[in-house]
Design brief:
2 helices; mainly alpha; 46 residues; 0% strand; globular
Length: 46
């Protein structure tokens, strides 16, 4: 599970896209709604 940590929002979202694209290259696709859920779950509470 990816977490935002100390990244800027742009860095975090770029990392999420990189992982999603990398999985697609090896034919492991994730539904868009699941990517959104994983992305939101990785954000801090504030």
């Amino acid at each position: 599970n990816i977490k935002k940590q100390e990244w800027t929002m742009m860095e975090y979202l770029s990392q999420v896209k990189f992982i999603s694209d990398s999985l697609g290259v090896v034919n492991e696709y994730i539904a868009d709604k699941d990517i959104v859920l994983y992305t939101l779950n990785g954000l801090p509470a504030q």
